[in-house]
Specification:
The protein has about 160 residues and is an alpha/beta fold. The chain has 6 helices and 7 strands, in the order βββββαβαβαααα. The protein has a single domain, classed as Nucleotidyltransferase, domain 5 (2-Layer Sandwich). The protein has a 5-stranded mixed β-sheet. A hairpin with a 5-residue loop joins strand 2 and strand 3. The model has no long low-confidence stretch (mean pLDDT about 90).
Length: about 160
């Protein structure tokens, strides 16, 4: 059975890539906002309601979501690790609330398939441009790595599910 396939990069600069039943693909950046933090610093926060809006019309019977299974990394700061985990948790809560099927894909797993072991930070963006040239306008800048990761997670899901 053909499915709507969703790939999610759960980071603050992440994105959601969706391949609908008709083959149409969309990419949306993770909804965030700038907020004033303690000490007057400006920070970025997730917008859970807007995140949910991206997935709200998907049907559990015809959708499968792949989300990057994140974990803390050596030399990563405590605050950034917490924020990354927060985003992952928000996405998992939204997915569970909508009853959508989900698979957790480690970066090593999807990157091994997509990039044959090349783990350069920009490799997914370059590979996404090769595999999805129509998406090039959304992937042209280095800051679009989150979009490319979501698209490549979606691409990996298509392979993994035999789509």
């Amino acid at each position: 059975m053909k499915l709507t396939i969703v790939g999610i990069d759960p980071g603050l600069t992440g994105a959601v890539a969706i391949r609908f039943l008709d083959g149409h693909i969309t990419i949306e950046d993770t909804p965030t906002t700038q907020v004033k933090k303690a000490g007057g610093k400006i920070g970025t926060e997730y917008l859970p309601r807007e995140m949910a809006n991206i997935l709200q019309n998907l049907k559990p019977s015809t959708t499968h979501i792949y989300i990057e299974n994140v974990h803390s990394m050596p030399k990563q700061g405590v605050a950034s690790t917490f924020t990354f985990g927060k985003g992952f948790g928000i996405w998992i809560g939204i997915i569970a609330a909508f009853g959508l099927p989900v698979t957790f894909a480690t970066p090593q797993r999807w990157k091994k398939y997509i990039m044959q072991g090349t783990y350069d930070k920009d490799a997914a963006r370059i590979r996404a441009q090769q595999l999805y040239p129509a998406m090039m306008p959304m992937l042209k800048l280095k800051k679009h790595i989150g979009r490319a990761d979501a698209l490549m997670i979606m691409h990996y899901a298509l392979h993994d599910l035999g789509q």
